[in-house]
Design brief:
By secondary structure, the protein is of the alpha+beta class. The chain has four helices and seven strands; from the N terminus they run βαβββαβββαα. A hairpin with a 4-residue loop joins strand 6 and strand 7. The longest helix is centred in the middle third of the chain and has 15 residues. The chain is globular.
Length: 152
């Protein structure tokens, strides 16, 4: 069974934010023994701004799961670590997004890869750039570092 390099975004703004991210990373490491983790950054909320600040990070791992199986595992980890989000861009104990799955491009009602708004969000690009600055976005064709620079 072949493995695919996958990058995930993680965020938390309820409870022990750093602890929630670290707990999720511990659980994600059961899927892949060689997980790489970006630094954790404190960021302002996007969208709905009347909520606590976030802690955000990213991680890279190798997965034998297909994207939909991985999404199902992520849903289970989110449920285990904390409460589900109540509304889009609302507060959450943990949020894990599939940002990149190899060079795959998927556009379904359930899952879009690359993440559809990752190129617009510093809280995604900043930690991701510490892991893969020269990786070219499969749709936009700019590197993660270039996308981050364009936001500043």
């Amino acid at each position: 069974m072949s493995s695919t390099e996958v990058y995930l975004g993680l965020g938390s703004n309820l409870g022990d934010r750093r602890g929630n991210i670290n707990h999720a990373i511990d659980l994600l490491s059961t899927l892949s023994p060689n997980i790489r983790v970006a630094p954790i950054y404190e960021t302002e909320p996007a969208g709905f701004t009347m909520q606590p600040t976030f802690m955000n990070s990213a991680c890279g791992l190798w997965s034998t799961l297909d994207p939909f199986q991985l999404l199902e595992r992520i849903y289970r980890i989110q449920a285990y670590v904390g409460t589900p989000h109540t509304f889009t861009n609302g507060p959450r104990t943990i949020d894990i997004d599939i940002l990149l799955y190899g060079r795959l491009v998927i556009d379904t009602p359930l899952l879009t890869i690359p993440h559809p708004r990752m190129h617009e969000r510093e809280f995604v690009l900043r930690p991701l750039s510490s892991l893969i600055p020269s990786y070219k976005h499969p749709r936009i064709k700019s590197t993660i570092a270039e996308l981050l620079t364009q936001l500043r």
